[in-house]
Amino acid sequence: MHFGQAGRLTRQFSVRKSTWGELRKVCEILLLASLTFSFSFLLTSVVSAQAAGRVALVLVAEDYQKFPKSSVGAKRGSEIAEALQAHGFDVIVSPNPSNAIARANLRDFAAKAEGADLAFVVMIGHGVSWGGQTFFLTTNTEIGRAADLLSRALSTTNIAQIVGRAQTGSVFFFMTSPSFESPIEGLDARPQFTSDVPKNSVTVFSSSARIPVSRIDAAGEQAAEAVAKLLQQPSPSLNEMIKVASSGGMGAVFGRVDDVSLTKPPPAPPAPSAIARPVASVAPQPAVSAPTSQEADGKLEAERRAREQAEARARDEQLRAERAQAEVLKAQADAKKAQADVEKAQADAERAKQEARRVEAQAQIAAAQAEELRHASMATPVDDAQLGQRQRRLIQQRLRDLGLYTGPIDAIMGPLTREAIMGYQKSRNAAVTGYLTAEQFDTLLPKDAQ
After folding, report:
1. Do 226 and 157 lie in a common domain?
2. For residue 56, what is the enclosing H or E element?
3. Does residue 136 sit in helix, strand or coil?
4. Do 255 and 118 lie in a common domain?
5. How far apart are CA 284 and CA 24, in angstroms?
6. Which residues of 261-275 are buried (b: 16+ CB within 10 A; e: fewer)?
7. What's the Cα-to-Cα distance from 427 to each of 393, 396, 397, 413, rounded to whole Å?
8. Same domain, yes or no, for 78 and 192?
């Protein structure tokens, strides 16, 4: 019986104008419903207060639909979850979750992490980075372009904001590397975390830029195994867990927290108001009905508002991340366009240089050909038959003056004259033919002497 039924009974009583005995029965029903609701509310409050001390979410993705199987495995996640439970954590375990299930588990965890003493999120599976964020890939994640990560994977940056609502929060990501059929531009197998880290939380990756890509899977597997063994010890600490989760310091750690013991705290004494008593024995006592329906409704409304505020903050973070990602994509597009413009200008300049070299080569060839023609015209022998007797005598006289001709000055171009001409050509390092070229004729007999 609850308040709705009691209200209907009251309305029926008013309509029928029942007897005082019926009214008393209705009052007893109302009192019983009130006591039952109060007891349930108090018990729920006690359980929630105990659960809010230490909370954890363990997401393990092993059997992927679009990628090879993760090498760490769901079994390791179960070991870590059981060890956290043994240390007093209220653990949500999600093996091989789809994107929708993982986000639903994250919403449930966010409600528990609000104001908790310790809040841990442990992720095991494939991860990639893009735009300064690292994303956990759920089992049904399918990526055609980098921007698909915003809606088809979980952002470690957003998860860090959620654990930051606790007194102390930590995110542990034991990453393995997926393989894509076709490379996707902008994705990186190594972790990135460029956002501000909440001052009371730390985000730990099992790999970093110091670990080769080929060793990422092995580093994640070894770190997860080391954490499971550490949590099985009787008194582990948070700093020890951070050290082994970061592959002994080789992984990436963002943020800093004070060291906290992970040893299970002693059980709190039960609240006196939460001890169950027979309803009949407490019915006459007015003190048992202390939390009235208005107070209960007020607390429920406060919890609802807190959840709505948490969800609004998460949406705001998501929108900021998407806007930042859009700005990164625009900057990358602008950079690519600028690079293309530079490459085009370089190609144009190179073509211009090649054209200039081609024109210069053609000019050199033309000049060489002109020079050859000039030399060819000048190298043509002078026809002796076209020379007058005076010119032939002058040639013989000039050759005699040079000590090259010993014959008579008779204007006959005989063997002695030819021999003298050959001696003249030898002295000028010219071709020895015995016949004067036009240039040699002009040199031997200047115009004024002809």
Report:
1. yes
2. strand 54-60
3. strand
4. yes
5. 14
6. ebeeeeeeeeeeeee
7. 21, 16, 17, 20
8. yes
Nearest to 89 by CA among 121, 61, 59: 121
The β-bridge partners of 175 are 125
Q: Which residue is associated with the tokens 């599976």?
A: 125
Q: Are residues 185 and 240 in the same domain?
A: yes
Domain annotation covers residue 344:
no
Burial of 411 (0-12, 13-18, 19+ CB in 10 A): middle
- Choose among 123, 117, 122, 121: nearest CA to 51: 117
Amino acid type, 52? A
- Strands (DSSP E) along 67-178, which ranges? 90-95, 118-130, 133-137, 153-155, 168-176
Using CA atoms, how far apart are residues 3 and 29, in angstroms rounded to an integer?
A: 9
What Å distances lie between residue 346 and 121, 135, 334, CA to CA? 51, 39, 18
Tell me which residue range forms the domain holding 84. 53-259
276 found inside a domain: no
CA 23 – CA 8 distance, rounded (Å): 13
pTM above 0.70, yes or no: no
93/233 same-domain check: yes
Residues 60 and 185 in one domain: yes
Q: Does residue 168 form part of some domain? A: yes
Which structure tokens are listed for 87?
């240390």
User: What is the number of domains present in the chain?
Assistant: 3
Long-range contact set of residues 212-219: C-beta below 8 Å, sequence gap at least 24: 213/177, 213/189, 216/175, 216/176, 216/177, 216/189, 216/190, 217/71, 217/72, 217/176, 217/177, 218/71, 219/247, 219/250, 219/251
Give the three-state DSSP class for 359: helix
Domain boundary, last residue among 259, 289, 324: 259
pLDDT in tens, the chain (450 residues): 444 554 554 455 444 444 555 555 545 555 544 544 443 443 334 333 344 699 999 999 999 998 999 989 899 999 999 999 999 999 999 999 999 999 999 999 999 999 999 999 999 999 999 999 999 999 999 898 999 999 999 999 999 999 999 999 999 999 999 988 888 988 998 999 988 888 889 999 999 989 998 899 999 999 999 999 999 999 999 999 999 999 988 999 999 998 999 988 877 666 555 444 444 444 444 444 445 667 777 888 888 889 889 989 989 999 999 999 999 999 999 999 999 999 999 999 999 999 999 999 999 988 887 776 666 555 678 888 888 899 999 999 999 999 999 999 998 999 999 999 999 999 999 999 999 998 999 888 887 766
- Under DSSP, the state recorded for 277 is -
Is 274 a domain residue? Answer: no
Are residues 141 and 81 part of one domain?
yes
